[in-house]
C-alpha cells in the first residue's frame, strides 16, 4: 500500500490547547540538525536557558527544557522533589490539580489535598491553614487550570510555603506568558510549562525553572549513571525515574554536559523561537496581548447571550469557559463548527463535561481576526441549531471592547 504525503487539514484552534503554532516556530523546527554536543548546539541550549529566564521572570541558573510534553515536566518535578513517604499538600481546584495528586501518589509520596469547587480559587488563608495543619515537605498547585478556566493567585505563595518549611511547585502549563507569573518575586521554587498554549509552539518540550533551594533538595538525591562519570552520589534516596531525573537533566544542561538523553533538535529550536518571539514583544507585552484579546472574546461571548462560567475576577486571560445553552447539543455544535468553519473549541471534563465550552485565545491565536472569526462562526452555528442569539452580537461586543481599549 502506498501512502500519500501528510496533508493535515488547516484548522483555527481556539480551544484550550494545543493552538496553531506561530509560523516562525514551525519554520524553526525544520532547521538543520547537529550533534547533541556540537558547540553550536550547546550554545543554542544556553541561549534557550537565558530566554526562558525572561519568560519566567527569574534569575534561576537551573532553567532548562524537559524533552516531552508539559506532563513530563510535571512528573519530573514531583518525582525529583519528593522522596517516598514525604508529605505533599496539593491544592485541587480542577482536573489538573487531580493530576498532581495522582503523579505524587505514583511517586510514593504521602498526599494530602485541599479542595475548592470547580470555578473558584483558593485564598492564601485557606492554603496557610493546610500548611499549618499538615506541615508538608512540598506544596503543589496549578496556576491556570484549563478545565475550569480559573487563575489561582500566586503572589505571596512562595513566602508562605517557606514560612512553614515547604517548597512550592506550580504547574503553569496553560498560564505562562498569558498571565502574570513572577517566579523570583513570588519565591516559587519550581515552575513548569509547555509550549502548546500561550508560548505559541507545538507540544513536545516543557520549560522548567528551579530555585537554588529546590536544586539543593534535588541534588541531595543526585545519582550518576554507571559509565558516565565518577561523580559522587547524593546522600538522599535515588530519584525513581531515569528519564525524568532533574538532577541528571541539570548535569546534562550544565557545563559538565554529562550525557543523559539526546536532546531533540527540532523541539529545542521550537522552544528557543517561542521564547525569542516573546523576548521581542516583552513578557509584559505578551501578557497584555492575551489580556486584551481574551477580554474581547469574553465580551463577545456575552454579546451572543451566553453565560460565562466561574469566578470572573479570577478567570485566566487566555481561556474562557461559557455555559452551553440548555437547548443546544454542545458536542454536535462543536463538531459542526469544526466541519463548517474549521474552527475548534473545547468542552471540559468531569462535572463540567457537556456543561461548558472552553474557548482559548492563546499564543499566535491571541489576535483580533481570530477572535472575530470565532465569534462569527459560533453565532452562525447557534442560529443553525435553533438557539436565538443577537444578530452580530458577538462581533459587535468584541469590536466595542477593542475600541474602548484603543481610546
Topology (SSEs and partners):
Elements: E1 12-13, H1 23-29, H2 39-56, E2 62-67, H3 70-81, E3 87-92, H4 95-106, E4 110-115, H5 124-134, E5 138-142, E6 144-145, E7 150-151, H6 157-163, E8 167-171, E9 190-192, E10 205-210, H7 212-219, H8 246-253, H9 265-281, H10 283-303, E11 319-323, H11 330-341, E12 343-344, E13 356-360, H12 368-384, H13 393-406
Parallel strand pairs: 1-12, 3-4, 3-5, 5-8, 8-9
Antiparallel strand pairs: 2-10, 6-7, 9-10, 11-13
Helix pairs in contact: 1-9, 2-9, 10-12, 10-13, 11-12, 12-13
GO molecular function, one term: alanine-glyoxylate transaminase activity
Keywords: Aminotransferase, Pyridoxal phosphate, Transferase
Modified residues (N6-(pyridoxal phosphate)lysine): 197
Task: Describe this protein's structure.
This protein is 40% helix and 14% strand. It is α/β, with parallel strands linked by helices. The chain folds into 2 domains: 22-279, Aspartate Aminotransferase, domain 2 (3-Layer(aba) Sandwich); 283-406, Aspartate Aminotransferase, domain 1 (Alpha-Beta Complex), CATH 3.90.1150. The strands form 4 sheets. Strands 2-10-9-8-5-3-4 form a 7-stranded mixed sheet, sandwiched between helices. It has a two-stranded parallel ribbon with strand order 1-12. Strand 6 (144-145) and strand 7 (150-151) form a beta hairpin. Helix 1 (23-29) packs antiparallel against helix 9 (265-281). Belongs to the class-V pyridoxal-phosphate-dependent aminotransferase family. Keywords: Aminotransferase, Pyridoxal phosphate, Transferase.
Amino acid at each position: 500500500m502506498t501512502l500519500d504525503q501528510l496533508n493535515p487539514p488547516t484548522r483555527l484552534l481556539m480551544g484550550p490547547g494545543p493552538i496553531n503554532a506561530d509560523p516562525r516556530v514551525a519554520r524553526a523546527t525544520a532547521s538543520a540538525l547537529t550533534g547533541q554536543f556540537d558547540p553550536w548546539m550547546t550554545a543554542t541550549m544556553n541561549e534557550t536557558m537565558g530566554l526562558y529566564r525572561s519568560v519566567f521572570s527569574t534569575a534561576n541558573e537551573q532553567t532548562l527544557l524537559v524533552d516531552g510534553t508539559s506532563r513530563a515536566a510535571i512528573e519530573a518535578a514531583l518525582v525529583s522533589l519528593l522522596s517516598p513517604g514525604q508529605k505533599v499538600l496539593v491544592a485541587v481546584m480542577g482536573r489538573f490539580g487531580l493530576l498532581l495528586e495522582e503523579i505524587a501518589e505514583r511517586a510514593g509520596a504521602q498526599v494530602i489535598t485541599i479542595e475548592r469547587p470547580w470555578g473558584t480559587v483558593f485564598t492564601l488563608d485557606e492554603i496557610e491553614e493546610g500548611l499549618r495543619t499538615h506541615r508538608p515537605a512540598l506544596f503543589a498547585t496549578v496556576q491556570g487550570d484549563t478545565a475550569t478556566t480559573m487563575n489561582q493567585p500566586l503572589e505571596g505563595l512562595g513566602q508562605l510555603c517557606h514560612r512553614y518549611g515547604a517548597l512550592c511547585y506550580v504547574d503553569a502549563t496553560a498560564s505562562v506568558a498569558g498571565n502574570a507569573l513572577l517566579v523570583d518575586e513570588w519565591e516559587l521554587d519550581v515552575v513548569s510549562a509547555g509550549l502548546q498554549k500561550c508560548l505559541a509552539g507545538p507540544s513536545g518540550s516543557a520549560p522548567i525553572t528551579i530555585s537554588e533551594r529546590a536544586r539543593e533538595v534535588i541534588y541531595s538525591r543526585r545519582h550518576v549513571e554507571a559509565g558516565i562519570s565518577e561523580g559522587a552520589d547524593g546522600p538522599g534516596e535515588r530519584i525513581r525515574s531515569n528519564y525524568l531525573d532533574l538532577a541528571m537533566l541539570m548535569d546534562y544542561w550544565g557545563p559538565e554536559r554529562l550525557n543523559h538523553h539526546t536532546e531533540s533538535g527540532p523541539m529545542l529550536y521550537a522552544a528557543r523561537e517561542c521564547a525569542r518571539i516573546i523576548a521581542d514583544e516583552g513578557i509584559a507585552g505578551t501578557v497584555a496581548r492575551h489580556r486584551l484579546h481574551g477580554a474581547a472574546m469574553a465580551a463577545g461571548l456575552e454579546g451572543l447571550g451566553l453565560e460565562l462560567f466561574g469566578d470572573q475576577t479570577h478567570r485566566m486571560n487566555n481561556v474562557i469557559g461559557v455555559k452551553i445553552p440548555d437547548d443546544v447539543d454542545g458536542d454536535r455544535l462543536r463538531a459542526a463548527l469544526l466541519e463548517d468553519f474549521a474552527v475548534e473549541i473545547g468542552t471540559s471534563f468531569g462535572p463540567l463535561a457537556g456543561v461548558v465550552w472552553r474557548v482559548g485565545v492563546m499564543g499566535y491565536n491571541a489576535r483580533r481576526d481570530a477572535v472575530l472569526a470565532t465569534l462569527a462562526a459560533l453565532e452562525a452555528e447557534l442560529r443553525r441549531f435553533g438557539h436565538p442569539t443577537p444578530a452580530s452580537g458577538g462581533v459587535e461586543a468584541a469590536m466595542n471592547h477593542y475600541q474602548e481599549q484603543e481610546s
